Each structure stands twice: as structure tokens, then as C-alpha cells.
Amino acid sequence: MANNRLSDLLHILVYIQMHQNQKLTSDLIASSLNTNPSLARRMMGQLRKADLLETTQGSATPKLTKDPKDITVFDVYLATCPDSPLLKVDHNTSKECQVGNAIPGVLNKYYLDIQSAAEAKMRHVTIQDLINDVEMSIRHHLMVAEQ
């Protein structure tokens, strides 16, 4: 089953940077994620632990610790504490079946290639890239709505 934690952490960083001159409570950030403030605070804690986000207790002014062009999706991916690869091979297959016996090793080889390619791509996409695309999407939706 897919994990959306990376998506949520990226969302938080983009949201904070795009609203950097505003008071940003965990309630407000949670509402953008469509989740509860407690979960938003825990996710922000992950970002703090990864040294990607700076917060001050009692102050609703979270800030990115680096310029958005210097934070990559891979940096945020590492903040999710990935304890398993993106794709997981099912090793609980029949050893009595030739396919069941062979498929885990075969898939593992391809999955490692996919993992490497995904991580390489994540190293080239920055928070600033995401902000630029979000801003463009917002402008596009506003133009469509005005028509």
C-alpha cells in the first residue's frame, strides 16, 4: 500500500514557504492537508528533526532552514525515515513453484533499479520547483475561473 507521508511533508514545506509572511498555526497547516493539527505537528517535527524546518514554540512562524532551491525532494524523502524501499518484493511465495521460487529475485533486481532511478530524480527536484509549479497551477485555475 502506498504511503503519502512524502507528499504531505512536501506539501507542508511548499505551504510554509508560500505563506512565509503570515501567521501559520498547526490548525491552518492541517486544514491545507485536510488532516488534524496533531498529525501536522508530528510531520513538522519530522521536518525539524531532518533540519529542514525551523519552529519556535509558542510562535506560529515556521521557516525553512534553507533556501527552497537548496532543498530537494530526496532530502524530504530521507525525512520520512524510509525503512523500506519504494517497492517491496513479496518473498512469501511458493518454493515448490518454479515461478514462485524465482520471481522474488527477479523482481528485486528490477526494483533496485527503479529505486535508484527514483532517488536520482528526487535529487534534482527542489522545493522551489514545486513552488513554481504550484504557483503556475493556481494562476491557471484563476484564469479558467475568470472565463
TrEMBL record:
Gene Ontology terms, MF aspect: DNA-binding transcription factor activity
InterPro entries, per the entry: Tscrpt_reg_Rrf2, WH-like_DNA-bd_sf, WH_DNA-bd_sf
This protein's GO CC annotations: cytosol
PANTHER family given in the database record: HTH-TYPE TRANSCRIPTIONAL REGULATOR YWGB-RELATED, WINGED HELIX-TURN-HELIX TRANSCRIPTIONAL REGULATOR, RRF2 FAMILY
Protein name (record): Transcription regulator
